[in-house]
Amino acid sequence: MRGIGTRRGRRAIWGWALYDWANSAFATVVLAGFFPLLFQDFWNTGVAPEVTNLRLGWSNSAASLVIVLSAPLVGALADAAGARKRLLFLFALAGMIATALLAGVPGGAWLSASLLFICATVGFMGANLLYDALLTSVAPPEQWHTVSGLGYGLGYLGGGLMYLGCVVAALRPEAFGFADSTQAALAAFVATALWWAVFSIPLLLLVPEPPAVGAAGGGSAWLRGFTQLRTTLGNLRRYRSVCIFLLAYWLYIDGVGTVIRMAVAYGRALGFERDQLITALLLVQFIGFPAAIAFGHLGHRIGPRRGITIGLAVYILVCIWGALIRSPWEFFAIAILVGLVQGGVQALSRSCYALLIPAHMSGEFFGFYNLMGKFAALIGPPLFGLSGAWFGDVRYSMLAVILLFVAGGVMLWRLPDSAFGNKRSLSDS
């Protein structure tokens, strides 16, 4: 199942990686692109940018709270029942339906749009939890950095192509049979749901379901999931390297996620035009495709910690420059910098964590991984919005994010070197 050199192993890797191609349409079209624009210009007409950004931040946090409360149990249940794929598609289906329904929300109905956005985001993030956990079953440990990079690379390319198609339709709505650009943008939500569904099929067909953890006769899957989760929580202090990494990840990925979710709204608040913001996001996507793959190879050569640190340093530069930005060309330059490191930080974080956990319990441990990532999103987006509201200038929002990258980087370097030398390192002393 994990033989990368076999035809079956290669098919499993590509089937797994193509799910990143599938769900990244949601990340680009909904999370980063059209939803923030429509939320400000269509569902929050006549509302101050600071208020809109705050509402968007709280919507992102509400979705993250649901995942925070459920992720470890979902992961433990998936391991105990041998149901990582089944639960993945359950979450994904919920996300696809909620995404499509966004197209029917009328103008001014910001609360309805927020509720559907929360449901769609919960489906997206819940499915990602199980998707990440499948990494350990599709390739051997020495390939995790490159395979993780392949997934993120395909995600950036697929998400970029989907977003480009939606942008063309929004810029020339009459050529596609739409009355105006707003109608075309709303239709993009339906197209995203369909893209997500179609390109999820390879994972369903080509990736094997890992076996259940524990004896089959040990009670119901729910009971075994609760029992395993309780055991792991009770013994979590034994997994020192895992705990240190999760704390570091919680801090720095908060900054990464905040930049992803709030960049378009930030640019809009500074007065940049829609087409300029769209161009910047496309730059991130298409640069991110080769950059994420390259970072996977870089992590294999110099180690994931050094690779992540390079990315965090670039993000600090991005935040400083972003607070001082005045011209559209600067926004494009910042987008290029983000594209060079965004996927790399995400990919190396996933594969680095996979090195630290027991592979047969990856669903549960990736539940904690996603919990920390989404718990961070409870703080970052609201902090971003509140900083602008407190100081009366959205530029202060960018400077607040720097603290997260610095603190995360410091914690990352508290990991002992031995944690990266043993692919099954669990309890470094």
Automatic annotation (TrEMBL):
Membrane topology category: Multi-pass membrane protein
Family matches, as PROSITE patterns: MFS
GO cellular component: endomembrane system
Gene3D superfamilies xref list: MFS general substrate transporter like domains
GO molecular function, one term: transmembrane transporter activity
Pfam family, one: ATG22
Main location: membrane
Entry keyword set: Membrane, Transmembrane, Transmembrane helix, Transport
Signal peptide coordinates: none
Regions that span the bilayer: 12-38, 58-80, 87-105, 111-131, 152-172, 184-207, 242-264, 276-295, 307-325, 331-356, 368-390, 396-415
Domain Major facilitator superfamily (MFS) profile: 1-419
Protein's cellular compartments: Endomembrane system
Protein name as it appears in the record: UMF1 family MFS transporter
